[in-house]
Amino acid sequence: MSNDKAGRRLDGRVVIVTGAGRGIGASYAKFAASEGAKVVVNDLGRTLQGEAEGMSPAEQVVSEIRAAGGEAVADTHDVADFEGARALVETAVKTFGGLDVLVNNAGILRDRMFTNMSEQEWDEVVRVNLRGHFCTSRHAAGYWRDQVKANGAPVDAVVIQTTSIAGLHGNPGQSNYMAAKSGVATLAWSIHLDMNQRYGVRSYAIAPSARTRLTLNSPGAVEVVNRKTASGFDYFDPDNTAPFVVWLGAKGCKAPSGSIFGVEGDVLRRYDAWHVGTTVRNGKRWTFEDIERRSAELFAGSERAFQPIAEVTNFEE
């Protein structure tokens, strides 16, 4: 825990972190608590295959936070169940008296090449990764709207969605995950449009890259996330992503609402999404001949549109 209690960035803030029993989510929860937040640690407590586990990972994280002098409570509701998500928000309000920050981190993988993907594999991933973000955000938004109506003043509240590199850049064998995570980024923008100016709620999406259960079971990711930089820096340590996410949740943070960020290692990226690449006008209705004649102009630069991120650091071989 932070020794400088007077300088803690989230002092008194109430924070929900979903999928917080392990990996990045656990790092968010523990770091938020170290910065003074009262944390609801949500985790359904399932294996990657969706099977129930014996000991609650949420309780384990809560125990660590309390042992370090922080305040936390465990929650095991299913975030993709609408009433379960309502109960999660109510847990924060009843236990700690309110809600200031929601970090939607819960997610699953069901990787398969598109031609072999089953209906169930598609539905399960979209349910947790997209519907799960909607359900919790919807109830948090309702709570904040009611607070504004009751108090006559905007709230300084934050919702942080978790998109992914796969959702923003693509990855073979993950069409279900890519579609859901791209939708999450759009959801963050939509919440910004509906909630920021009217109620004061800041909305963000982050694409974290770290060593987690998901990346360690993702095609081609294991070798990458287990490597260290030539200097010995553990580039994909989950703890690397926590400071930026917690910083976004701090009261008065000036990061523009609606932004999408990439967070990994020692690198921060801001994405400029939904920008027009090229515009071509014809002055009259298009014909096939007109389209063919202007196609090179229309497609200029498109070969760069969805290229993978270039290497940003040197790794040990």
Concise synopsis of the structure shown:
With 317 residues, this protein is α/β, with parallel strands linked by helices. It is 39% helix and 13% strand.
**Helix-strand category:** alpha/beta
Taken in chain order, the helices and strands follow as: EHEHEHEHEHHEHHEEH
Major sheet, described briefly? 8 strands, mixed
Q: Approximately what portion of the residues adopt beta-strand conformation?
A: 5-15%
Q: Spell out the CATH superfamily.
A: NAD(P)-binding Rossmann-like Domain
Distance between the termini: 35 Å
Question: Which secondary structure elements does this structure contain, and how are they paired or packed?
Answer:
Elements (H helix, E strand, L loop, with lengths): L13 E4 L5 H12 L3 E5 L14 H11 L3 E5 L6 H15 L4 E3 L15 H33 L6 E5 L2 H5 L5 H25 L2 E8 L12 H4 L16 H8 L10 E5 L2 E5 L16 H11 L19
Parallel strand pairs: 1-2, 1-4, 2-3, 4-5, 5-6, 6-7
Antiparallel strand pairs: 7-8
Helix pairs in contact: 1-2, 1-8, 3-4, 4-6
What attributes characterize this protein structure?
317 residues, alpha/beta, Rossmann fold, 8-stranded mixed β-sheet, globular
